[in-house]
Amino acid sequence: MKSIQAEVEAVDGWLNPEEGRLLYRLARRCKGRGAIVEIGSWKGKSTIWLSNGSLAGSHAKVHAIDPHTGSPEHSEMFGKVWTFEEFQRNIEQAGVTEVVVPHVDFSTAVAKTFSESVELIFVDGLHEYEGVRDDFEAWFPKVVNGGWMAFHDTTCWPGVLNVVVNSVFKSRRFRKIGFRRSIVYAEKVAENTFVERVGNRIMLALFLLHAWSERFVWRLVHNYLDCGPTRAFVAYIKRKRQLRSVPAPMGSERVGAP
């Protein structure tokens, strides 16, 4: 996975490497019983992880859905947004074009005409409650029993958090719920057992504690530690690590070395 991580480092996006490795494993686990769907591709970082996982497994098509005009937050930060060409370049450079099927549209519009079964879906579209709820309701029926749903940014966006708590953790249609950084993932079933429901509630308590700690650390870093001296210290540490990783020139020896 190190080679994949090196490929995606230059791709703009907010997916943590640990989250990327999780998506890779979920995609590799697919058995070809349905497509892989990604809601919210941005410039392709998560698409590349999913696609490499698919290529290592069943070669299921990865349907990458994004209007490529950004979210309201992107518009506030960047103004007018159009990311499709950059997305295509990143996918091509990563060598995963053969399994990626782009959909330049909103996910609920694509869902209306999408006739394939889905074995894995990664939900990372609009993060307001209504947007996440609409994505869930549009795509949940298409996911096969034994398939997986994963949700990004569950720890930091109240809308995403509310949907996963009520529609995943407290549902009778999921088991084997887990979380990695800001991603919550779960296996869809016809109906979970009593023991699985108890396990889901225990996992919910652990997840809520995890989500609180993630938000606490974020506030600590951004409200109190994000200052000039701290940034300078971090930059100094990064430079030291980079210098250590640079190999010595051929033939160079330390004075007095045997």
Mind explaining what this structure looks like?
The protein is of the alpha/beta class and 258 residues long. The protein has a single domain (2-224), classed as 3-Layer(aba) Sandwich (Rossmann fold), CATH 3.40.50. The chain contains 10 helices and 7 strands. The chain has helices spanning 2-8, 17-29, 45-56, 72-78, 84-94, 107-113, 129-139, 158-169, 194-225, 228-245, and strands spanning 35-39, 62-65, 100-103, 118-123, 143-151, 174-180, 183-188. The protein has a 7-stranded mixed beta sheet with strand order 3-2-1-4-5-7-6, with helices on both faces. Helix 6 runs parallel beside helix 7. 36% of the residues are buried.
What is Rg? 21 Å
SS-based structural class?
alpha/beta
CATH class wording: Alpha Beta
Structurally, the number of domains stands at 1
